[in-house]
Design goal:
The complex is a heterodimer of chains A (191) and B (329). In chain A, helix 3 crosses helix 6. Chain A is α+β, with helices and mostly antiparallel strands and 191 residues long. In chain A, strand 3 and strand 4 form a beta hairpin. Chain A is built from six helices and five strands; from the N terminus they run αββαβββαααα. Chain A is globular, with a radius of gyration of 18 Å. In chain A, strands 2-1-5-3-4 form a five-stranded mixed β-sheet, sandwiched between helices. Chain B is an alpha+beta fold and 329 residues long. The N and C termini of chain B lie far apart (51 Å). The longest helix of chain B has 19 residues. In chain B, strand 6 and strand 7 form a beta hairpin. Chain B is built from 13 helices and twelve strands. In chain B, the strands form three sheets. In chain B, strands 4-5-8-6-7 form a five-stranded antiparallel β-sheet. Chain B is globular. Among the domains of chain B are: 46 residues, Uridine Diphospho-n-acetylenolpyruvylglucosamine Reductase, domain 2; 103 residues, CO dehydrogenase flavoprotein, C-terminal domain (Enolase-like, domain 1, 2-Layer Sandwich), CATH 3.30.390. The chains are: A alpha+beta (191), B alpha+beta (329). Chains A and B meet through strand 4, helix 4 and helix 5 of A and strand 1, helix 2, helix 3, helix 4 and helix 5 of B.
Chain lengths: 191, 329
């Protein structure tokens, strides 16, 4: 049962009592979805509660764990710390849009091969974050682990991967295997 | 979260007018990574949000004097990735990369980073009195757990610290903040004057007027010398500083010829140390010089019980950073 009083309420809307809503057009995994939302709805809650895209997880709801990581215009962000209404016109990719059964994304295959998860709760966020991170590294972005931030090319060492992925927490401590999985794909991407 | 109406601003003048129309409950939102965190806890309760994230202030622009303007809407990660910042304002790139996480840096704006609020746990917890959150209710950190609180410039009304790394580097670089007001005029405030000390009114954190919007941060042509940002914290990543140092040091023939020093994690604002700088310039680039400068920088520093260690930590961090900077000078 969708806990959405706006959609299912039998009480006629009363402007004095109802929270402000907005009609928002969101483009998610290539498909446009239009929803009427309480302005307070985070992108995370819009995805999970209104659009039934429950692959993205709520871990802390305060931008501290990374379980809610999605890609917006190719960039990784915490969907819990942004409002759905702020993303009309953006290309949003969630874990549901990464790979497909029988046609896994290389990171998904690597996570399985390297046993990069136990409970799996952080995994959608880890994978979306890693996709964004690999793109950043490919673009030559330095990190806090980079000795010379002005160097034009970055070598994605284990230390670099750990630093760049530090916004994604795993309570099952699958970190060594997560790093191995990402390292595998990073090497493969280089050809 | 309290309810609010929302609009996306289409131009700066309209954005400022919307704030004026919305009254004291109207606020700008850009990345939202600090504001939404505080709104979820109802520490911030805007009634109207004006989204300025799409305004044309996202670029980094070369200036005729050899300086650079950073648009207020530029994402932290874009600033840190820009080769001009990485090669000419390295201390700023290092500071940005030392802060937050990849996801947060992608959303956080330069303006928002300047305006972010303290992470003092008492500020965050409505069960505890906090003069910053609710004036007149006291400072629970004084006499409470104050391990990560201020050792300089504080008052009995508030011992909170400013959490930004970026701002510390910008203070060392003597950046200037451009503020657009409702008259359409832009005023420029040196960053050292932008953030306030707590005094008796810790709820007022900057000199920003209610009708003003930060539009850019201007850097002068790069100062001489080597630029380093060093951050000391409990964890290796994704944590605020206990103490940090932004240092820009030039040395010639074993003598320091110029120095800019700022500390993070020690005060209600990034702490520029003119005293340390004066004790460095003209002196030999040796540890004895650095120690003397560090003692001067921390003159008047006072711990509150759990943060006394920060005084020595700040001195040692400064010495280490100066030694590193002068070495390759």
């Amino acid at each position: 049962m969708t806990p959405d009083v706006l959609q299912n309420s039998a009480v006629p809307p009363n402007a004095a009592l109802s929270p402000p809503t907005v009609r928002v057009r969101l483009r998610i995994n290539g498909t446009e979805r239009t929803v009427e939302l309480d302005t307070r709805t985070t992108l995370l809650d819009a995805l999970r509660e209104r659009l039934q895209l429950t692959g993205t997880k709520k871990g802390c709801d305060h931008g501290q764990c990374g379980a809610c990581t999605v890609l917006i215009n190719g960039r990784r962000i915490n969907s819990c710390l942004t409002l759905a209404v702020m993303h009309e016109g953006d290309e949003i990719v969630t874990i549901e849009g990464v790979g497909a059964p029988g046609a896994l994304h290389p990171l998904q295959a690597a996570f399985i091969e390297h046993d990069g998860f136990q409970c799996g709760y952080c995994s959608p966020g880890q994978i979306c974050s890693a996709i964004g991170m690999l793109r950043e590294a490919e673009a030559g972005w330095p990190s806090h682990a980079t000795a010379d931030v002005a160097a034009p090319r970055i070598a994605l060492t284990e230390a670099e991967i750990r630093e760049r992925m530090s916004g994604n927490i795993c309570r099952c401590a699958a970190y060594p295997n997560i790093v191995a999985a990402i390292r595998d794909v990073a090497k493969g991407a280089r050809g | 979260m309290k309810t609010f109406t929302y609009e996306r601003a289409t131009d700066p003048g309209a954005a400022i007018a919307a704030i004026a129309r919305g009254g004291p409950g109207a606020k700008f939102i850009s990345g939202g990574t600090n504001l939404l965190d505080l709104m979820k806890l109802e520490i911030e309760r805007p009634t109207h949000l004006v989204d300025i994230s799409r305004l044309p202030f996202r670029d980094l622009e070369d200036l005729p004097d050899g300086g650079l303007r950073i648009g207020a809407q530029a994402a932290n990660s874009d600033i840190a990735a820009d080769m001009r910042i990485r090669s000419r304002y390295r201390v700023l790139a290092e500071a940005l990369l030392a802060g937050a996480s990849g996801q947060l840096r992608n959303m956080a704006s330069a303006g928002g980073n300047l305006l972010q609020r303290t992470r003092c746990p008492y500020f965050y917890d409505p069960l505890y009195g906090c003069n910053k959150r609710t004036p007149g209710t006291g400072c629970s950190a004084v006499g409470g757990i104050n391990r990560n609180h201020a050792i300089l410039g504080a008052s009995d009304a508030c011992i909170a610290t400013h959490p930004s790394d970026m701002a510390v580097a910008m203070v060392a670089l003597e950046a200037r903040i451009e503020l657009l007001g409702s008259s359409g005029a832009t005023r420029v405030v040196p960053i050292g004057d932008f953030h306030r000390l707590p005094g008796d009114t810790p709820d007022i954190e900057t000199v920003l007027h209610p009708d003003e919007m930060i539009t850019g941060v201007v850097l002068s042509a790069p100062p001489p010398g080597r630029q380093i940002y060093r951050k000391v914290r409990d964890r290796a990543s994704y944590e605020f500083a206990l103490v940090s140092v932004a240092a820009i040091v030039a040395a010639e023939q074993g003598r320091i010829t110029s120095a800019k020093i700022a500390f993070g994690g020690v005060a209600h604002k990034p702490w520029r140390s003119l005293e340390a700088e004066a004790a460095l310039v003209g002196h030999p680039a040796k540890m004895a010089t650095y120690r003397a400068a560090a003692d001067l920088a921390m003159k008047g520093a006072a711990g509150r019980g759990h943060n006394d260690f920060k005084i020595d930590l700040a001195k040692r961090t400064l010495c280490r950073t100066l030694a590193q900077a002068a070495q390759e000078g």
